[in-house]
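User: quick one - fold this with magnesium ion bound?
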Amino acid sequence: MTGKPILWIVIPCYNESEVLPITAPMFLAQLTRMRDAGKISDKSRVLFVNDGSRDNTWEIIEKLAVSDPHYIGICLSRNRGHQNALTAGMMEARGHVDCIISIDADGQDDIRAMDAMIDEYRNGSEVVYGVRSSRTTDTWFKRTTAQMYYRLLEHFGGDIVYNHADYRLVSSAVLDSFANFHEVNLFLRGLFPLIGYKSSTVSYAREERLAGQSHYPLMKMISLAVDGITSLSVRPIRFITNLGVFCSLLGVAGIIWVLVRKVTGHLSVLGWSSTVCLILFLGGIQLISLGVIGEYIGKIYMECKHRPRFIISERTWVCQEREYKG
Ligand code: UDP
Ligand code: MG
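Assistant: Sure. Structure tokens for the protein plus magnesium ion:
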């Protein structure tokens, strides 16, 4: 790496009017600190992506952009979710940067880890994953379910970095490769290991949200979890096949047992409750299996429409580059 890299910090924001006035100056201070330390170029920026917020987040971003040229913002035409907002920010940065660091708006991820990320980048890493060294500030429930989920994903063949969310540095080369991934069902933390390149990790302590509310209640967490597994692997379908084979073998064993009882003259009309239990059990398995397969068919349906993943309706800065079809 020759010269100082241009870095954009990409921050998706959805209804963050409470926390943004606190964290925005922190991001800028970190940018300035790294610039003064000679680690990054003065052309570096803090990019906010307003993900169709219902509060006055966009007005705050516009004011920030007027107050300091290092702040810039883009506004999506409606709420598209964290992963799409992040993609919009990364594609906006592409062509203008040497690397980006994506981070949440709420100050939960330690911004000081960016120094180490830039050091890793300058040492040749194209992707640097921020890894949570402790999860003590998360609730017991979030911690345990998250840990179980990582295990499950690994089991289903997803290649992900343990305890890494969406705090990561990505080089321009990786951004260019990422631009060729057009999938609508995005699960970024599973996608970057798939893209490859030389990578490393930087660990940091995860803090409490500085203000405002989490946007990931249980149902949204479950839906992200299901998206993660189904967008990375088709092993759940294979699991159903194995389950089917197992049930069939059980059935064959049952038939043999009934025949033996008949031949030995032990067969009676008893067994109503066991029959009903079996029917209910197998019915349940069949419905779940249909649901899993349906999940994939739904994904195929959404993918084949090729709809844009986001639409940028406003910018606080003038983007002279080509338009990217989200
Ligand atoms: N976010 C977003 N769009 C959404 C939901 C969330 O851009 O539809 C952003 C949010 O503003 C924050 C980040 O995604 O910067 C992570 O959200 P949050 O902190 O609520 O999640 P948690 O840390 O609780 O998992
Ligand atoms: Mg958060």
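One thing worth noting: Residues 235-305 form one domain.
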